[in-house]
Structure formats: C-alpha cells, structure tokens
Amino acid sequence: MPTPRPRRAPGTRGEHLAVLDPATGEAFDEAPDQQPPELDAVIDRAHQAWRGWRADPAARTTALRAAADAVEAAGTDLAPLLTREQGKPLAESYAEVARTAARLRYFAELDPAPRPVTDGRPVHSELRWRALGPVAAIVPWNFPLQLASAKFAPALAAGNTMVLKPSPFTPLATRLLGTVLATALPEDVLTIVTGREPLGARLAAHPGIRHVTFTGSIPTGRAVAKAAAASLARVTLELGGNDAAILLEDVDVERIADRLFWAAFRNCGQVCMAVKRVYAPARLHSHVVEALAQRAKTAVVGAGLDPRSQLGPVNNAPQLARVEHYTAQALADGARAAAGGHRLAGPGYFFAPTILTDVPPDSPVVTEEQFGPVLPVLPYRTLDEAVDAANGTGFGLGGSVWGTDLDRAEAVAGRLECGTAWINHHAELSLAQPFAGIKESGVGVAGGPWGLYQNLSPFVVHRPQEA
Ligand code: NAD
Fold first, then answer.
1. Within 10 A of 310 (CB to CB), how many other CB atoms are there?
2. How far apart are CA 295 and CA 257, in angstroms?
3. Which pairing describes strands 115-117 and 123-131: parallel, antiparallel, or unpaired?
4. Torsion of CA 81, 19, 340, 284, to 10 degrees
5. pTM over 0.70
6. Would you tell me how many other CB atoms lie within 10 Å of the CB of residue 362?
7. What residues are labeled active site?
8. Domains in the chain, CATH or no CATH each
C-alpha cells in the first residue's frame, strides 16, 4: 500500500516553505510555515497524550516495535523523498531509513527497571524513573530522519511525548515519517511541526516543554539554551564538530586512504563528526595529499537520485556560500588545491571534492567547521604538536588516530579531547554507546541507555525496613 502523503497542517494560515531540490536549485514542493502561536495548541495536545502514553510501558514497547516495522515498510517512499530534498545519494537515504527503524527497535526494548539504592543504613530506598512530560526536538538538515529518530526513539520509549521541528530546508521526509509513525503511535504522541527560526525559538522557550533536545550549530545551540532557561527545561545540545584525524608514522597510506576519504566526504562532508582536518607526519604528507586528491578527482559527483553518484550536492545555498568562502579564504592565505577548490558549473549546489595543502594552521578552514566537501591536510613534525593541534580548538566532538600498531594508536587516541575517538576509522557509532560532545560540541548525552536516562527523571522512594 502506498504511504499516505501528509496533509497540510491544520491551523496554518496558508504560509508555506518552498522546498528546493539541491541538485537543481529549484523548488519542487512545499511544507507549512507554521507560526509560533500555533504551538500552544500542539503542546497542549502533547500534554493530554502524555497521560496515557507514560502509564503503560508494555503498550509503548508494542507501539514502538510496530513503528519500526512501519518505517521499514515505507522505505521506498521515504528514501527518494529524503534524497530529493537533502541531496544525498539514494543508498545513503536508505541507510538513514534503516537506522531510524533500528533505533526504534533498540529503544523499544530498553527497560529503566527500578532498583534499590543503599549506603548501608537500615532504610530501603528504591530508585524508579519518571518520564518528563512533553519534550521538544529541533534538528538540522544533514540527517533529517536519523537525527529525528535519535530524538524521538529514546524520548518516546521513556514515556514522554514529543513535538519535533525539522530544518526548513528538509521538512518533507520528516513530515512523511510523522505520517508513517502515526499508523503505529497514539494520536499526539509525536507531532511534527514545520517552520522557520521563530517557530524553533518559541518551541525552545515554551513553558509547556520539559526537555529541549537540539542538534545543530553552536550559535543556535547557545540561543536554544538561553531560550530554555526561561522555563528551566532540561537541555541537550549536540553541536558542531571539527574532528581531526591524526595519521601516525607507521600508517599504511594506501590501505587506509579510501576509508579516510569517505570519513571526510560522506554526505558531501555534511556530517557533524566527519573528519574535517587531517594531520600527517611531514615525511608522509605529500603521499597522503596525493592519495586523497586522487580519490577526490575520481569520486562521481551528481544528483543523489542517479545511482552512479557517490557524492551529491551541498544541501542549500547559504551552506554552499560558506564552503566557497572558507575555501577561497584558504587559497588567498596561500593554500593550494590538490583537487577541486571550486564550485561546479551548471545548476544545483555542487562543489568539487577538494583537498587543500599548504594551508596556514590558523586558516578558518582548519579552525572552524567547514561542513562541506573540503578537507585540509596539514603536516606535523612531532606527535605532541599533532595532538596539541587536534585539541587546540573549541570543538570536542570526535577524533581518530590511524596507524599499524593498534596499541600505540589507542594510546594517542586517549589523549584526544572529545566524546568519541576511533582507531583506523571514523564516525561509526553503535546504537548502544553514549554519544556526547565536550567543550562547545555539546551538553548532555544521546545514545544507548544514557540517551534513555537523558529523557527521564530519577524518583526515589524511601521507607524504613520496619514499621
Ligand atoms: P542550525 O543551527 O542553523 O539549525 C538547526 C535547527 O535549528 C533548524 O531546525 C533551525 O530551523 C533551528 N533554529 C534556527 N534558529 C533557531 C533558534 N533561534 N531557536 C531554535 N531553533 C532554531 O544548524 P544547521 O545549519 O541546520 O546544521 C548544521 C550544524 O549542525 C553543523 O554545525 C553540524 O555540525 C551540526 N550537527 C551536529 C550534530 C551532532 O550530533 N553533534 C549532528 C548533526 C549536525
């Protein structure tokens, strides 16, 4: 049966967001541009729905399992729509859909069971966990479905209801996902709202919301934290990254080059924990640049719906302008493009996969988050110098170390100031592990049981052992 198309959101006053296909730069559909006052009724309904949803853990498990099945069954509708509005190759969109279903299944089975807590005194204390209430999620455009599910799967499993706002650049697949999930979830347990920045700002500040979980840029994260301070709602922030990959002296360049390249260029580099800078020993630097440049020159760039494409377009015009700006500034500062370095001719937001060398270490393409298909490769003389450079920004999301001696690589990885460090690969996450940035990359934890508890409050009942 075909997946039903989402209806226009009730209550919108006719305003709409035009949704562009980044492969052409042209609008192909629209979504409601909901206005902040509409949130009052939406959050009120989420509150009503919470009473029933929090009360029955077994019913929640059943509903979340059914939701996972429904997502899987709708894959052939969700994935092409996601590619159309986001730009990524179709295979990556299917992977997002699969991850969304897997995450629902994972959290459906987690059980925050009560347990005794004791300090040895003759008092029986039992720790139970309580749902928070209606919670809000605000997500960006790089992984619309996967990041939405990282919010709603643990929140709903914990017994909360949720109001979720996708990016105005990518509202369509998320709205369709909402329609699909509505076939398995009770009414108003998960509501998708679409609109621009003021809608997000109001959602973050709304007094009816008990937890605001946000993924996006650091400046918007700060604004969200400030807005949520009004109601003292809990805040989880998953923010930008500038992950470094450190290659060690004993690295086998040819063996790791493919993996390293795709760790930087998957989803056109628009991944919070993509490799965003490479540090190579001076002796190997030109070999590394050459190996990566060769892959950048031969990677197939094209519309995500074309099955030959390995890299799609940048998602939107402002982001393309940002990528162009960082690249132009690096080139003006003396960097050289070993591959790419420019926008591709023709329609759409395509940028040539770019490898930069001779980049000044204080160039913004190194110190800030480029979030696009551009990778600076920097030489280092001593390992301490490389570790200091890797740790020398305000970011602290992830990092990786690449070499043949795994024990040595692991020892270096332990020195990275970040939430996740990989050895000989990058950006692979298990559903069962905690995911948390440090420094300006985040506040709070997602993933695994920690992600569930981030959506719960501890509730302790004390009673004496005797009457
Ligand atoms: P963004 O911060 O511009 O927007 C994110 C979301 O916030 C959008 O839905 C947007 O409409 C909304 N928003 C904008 N202004 C708001 C406000 N004042 N109040 C509330 N909501 C508001 O980010 P983006 O450009 O969409 O995404 C790219 C950024 O996301 C990058 O920095 C990337 O590293 C980061 N990111 C982080 C993670 C992570 O897990 N750490 C994952 C993916 C992306």
1. 18
2. 8
3. antiparallel
4. -60
5. yes
6. 8
7. 238
8. 32-239+433-462 (3.40.605.10), 243-423 (3.40.309.10)
Question: From CA 265, how far away is CA 372, in angstroms rounded?
Answer: 8
Beta-bridged to residue 400, according to DSSP, are: 245, 422
**Residue 195: CB within 6 Å of ligand 1?**
no
Mean pLDDT, residues 263-274 taken together: 98
* Cα 207 to middle of ligand 1, angstroms: 22
Which of 165, 212, 272 most suits a substitution to test ligand 1, by most atoms within 8 Å of the C-beta?
272
Helix (H, G, I), strand (E, B) or coil at 423: strand
Pocket perturbation via mutation, ligand 1, pick of 39, 99, 138, 439 by most ligand atoms within 8 A of CB: 138
CA of 141 to the centre of ligand 1 (A): 8
Which protein residue has the closest C-alpha to ligand 1 atom 16? 197
Tokens standing for residue 20: 């562009």
CA-closest residue to ligand 1 atom 40? 238
Q: How far apart are alpha carbons 43 and 26 in whole angstroms?
A: 34
Q: Each residue of 18-76: pLDDT tens digit?
A: 999 999 999 999 999 999 999 999 999 999 999 999 999 999 999 999 999 999 999 99
124 closest CA partner among 466, 467, 463: 463
Contact between 59 and 36 under an 8 Å Cβ cutoff? The reply is no
| Confidence band, pLDDT 50/70/90 cuts, at residue 3 | low
**What is the number of the ligand 1 atom nearest to the C-alpha of 441?**
41
Q: Exposure string (b/e) for 124-160, b if CB count within 10 Å is 16 or more? A: eeeeebebbbbbbbbbbbbbbbbbbbbbbbbbbbbbb
Q: What is the pLDDT of residue 467?
A: 73
Q: Ligand 1 within 6 A of 202 CB?
A: no
Tell me the per-residue pLDDT of 204-246, one tens digit each, with 9 for 90 and over.
Answer: 999 999 999 999 999 999 999 999 999 999 999 999 999 999 9
Residue range 353-371: mean pLDDT, rounded: 98
Q: Which atom of ligand 1 is nearest to the CA of 241?
A: 34
Angstrom distance (rounded) from CA 245 to CA 153: 31
The strand pair at 420-423 and 374-380 is best described as unpaired
Q: From the CA of 139, how far away is ligand 1's center (Å)?
A: 6
> Which of 149, 182, 200 lies closest to 39, judged by CA?
200
Where does the pLDDT of residue 14 fall: very low under 50, low under 70, confident under 90, or very high at 90 and above?
A: low
The answer for residues whose C-beta is within 8 angstroms of residue 388's C-beta and 6 or more apart is: none
